[in-house]
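Structure representation:
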Amino acid sequence: MSDAPPLDDDDIVQFIDEPSEWASSTSVDPWRILIVDDEHDVHEATRLALRDLTIEGRPLAFLQAYSAQEARAILAREPSVAVVLLDVVMESEDAGLLLVRWIRRELGNPSVRIILRTGQPGYAPELETIRSFDINDYRTKSELTRVRLFTSLTVAIRSYWQLRQIEMSRRGLELIVEASTGLIRLRALQQFAEGVVTQVCALLNIAQEGLICASSSGPFADEAPQIIAAAGHYREMIHRPLAELPEASVREALRQCLLEKRHRFDQTVCLYFNVSETQGMAAYLAMTGEPSQMDRHLLEVFCANISVGFENVLLHNRLFRLAYYDQLSGLPNRNRFIQLVEEKGRDPDMALALLDLDDFADIATTLDHHFGDEVLRAVAERLAQTFGSQVMLARIAGDTFGLLGPRDAVTPERIQRVFGEPLTVRDETIRLSATSSLITLSGQPAKGGRDLLQDAGIALKQGKRLGRGKANYFSEALGRTARERMQLLSSLRSAFSAEQLSLVFQPQIELASGRVIGAEALLRWEIEPGRWVPPDQFIPLAEQSGLIVPLGEWVLRTACRQLHRLTERGHTGFRMAINVSHAQFREPGFVSMLERVLADSRVAASQIELELTESVAMDHIDDINTKLADIRRRGVTIAIDDFGTGYSSLSVLRQLNIDRLKIDRSFVKEIDGTNTKAGIAQLIIALGHQCNLALIAEGVENAVQRRSLLAMGCLEAQGFLFARPMPIEQLEDWMAAAVSNQDRLV
């Protein structure tokens, strides 16, 4: 046995009252104890027994009720009561138990702890009642000595505080979820950050005073930490550097928070948000005193949750910029410009312009693409300098820029002023010009942004055709023409798909003998009986749209199939001349496609002559010659169609791997039997002889032209003098008749 003296009541109370390690609150708020008893002496005895005691480091405060009705009123207005010391028998034998039932079921307070006391043990509640109504303890008043009363109260308070912690945690998490749900709808960074300040202050039940700053990196690259959101009197600091914050302690706390990448819970509360694409964000809260352990836990959960929200906002902003802003120049792109035009398109004082740099492709090709990018950035800067903030700028595509602003600001003169002085790029002086188009929105019918931009594009293309370096205004006539071209292209696609296009064939004659040596295959489009669309209208559309590639292959296959038919019927050695578009010829797979067609059609390659225009010489001559040589090695001959109307020079002509020159009908038409008007045709024939090329003339309509061409040394021709273009069936009949009439053609 121990020799230590026995402990008295005060010693036991002192031992029990030592604060436990789990005590989490540093607050001095007292525990509120409600004494409910109809005897004044019990109230006095209870207060005396518990005077000057503390439990878990906090004092006790007593509330007093002398009936169940008074207790209800107090509990209704004082939700923070921790323990009720309740007499069972008061105004009625079950007044205490009825009060317990009211607390739990009607008041809905599950946290307050209840200790039943009675002076009449016979009225003790049943065990099931104690369990159902969550009663902590039941004692007779004679049992409740100072020590036992204190012990029961301590157990009850600890139980109450644990329940409150759980309840606060649950409610705090609910607030976090509610806050996150509300904030997730916000896409603007500043708006989201301001919402975070508001929500965290509401979570802690403190005044909305605080700010959030972001450290450098990502969207804040090369910048010192900036204040991106604020509430209360800090609001005036938004968008200013953190270094300008006048309160040194707050400034230093935020700086340390960003530097250390962690929360700070000391004299100043700073929260750290670990957000990718930045070096972090920090929030300052104007909070007096350190937060409790529970509040710290809630704040940590909140910050982890909201960090994801910040990342989502930044991701949304990045995706928005990718979708609506040009990454090279930083200007709005086509999508965003259309939106801006939609917003301003009905303003009669606004003007829309498109600006396209002239010959920009040559800069990028001659120097390098990186240099071209720097030129585009320099143009964007010059535009911004020239037009200022009153005009909205955009990079529409490639080297095309858009302008939208007041009519007196967006003018041809001001656009040309942009290029009045040369640009300096990498210490190189670059002189540029631009073709532009303008639409004055005044008087325009209600159109969408996309339609208005399309109208400006139509005027821009027209300007490029008519003369570069100038401005061209859009007119409804231009719009109608463009719409008609689009309708024609749509009809052409439909006609091609429905196999409504056809070939006709114009015979080619040997002038000396009148013998039929071949025919040229010509594409025709009959949109309705007797109504034809001229080839010079639909062929350029097919070339611009890319339809010429499948259309050209169809022409080649059809012409070869008809050639096989003629050969099978005895017309051996017959030559089929087939036109090939420059756009079709440029296709990388053209030669292999030609080879497949020849094999499928079972015709001799030597019977095929491809007619190319002079525009073929516009491409790199070495690459063109390689392709031409590849074709000729297979036995196919090459003719240059409409010679003399295009771009080629004598030096280029000498370099081309071709077999024949075709004299254009415009030069043949000038031949009238005298030497004065036959000069160009005679010159072309002389050039052909000098280059060892065969010659054929087209558009021969009379005997004088035939005789003159033959006298000049042109041995072959085609034209209305001999025959008009005709379907294959008529060609067969005509050829049969031509054999007997051969002498007449000589």
Notes: The longest strand covers residues 516-528. The chain has a mean pLDDT of 81. The chain is about 45% helix and 20% strand. Residues 254 and 698 are 86 Å apart (CA to CA).
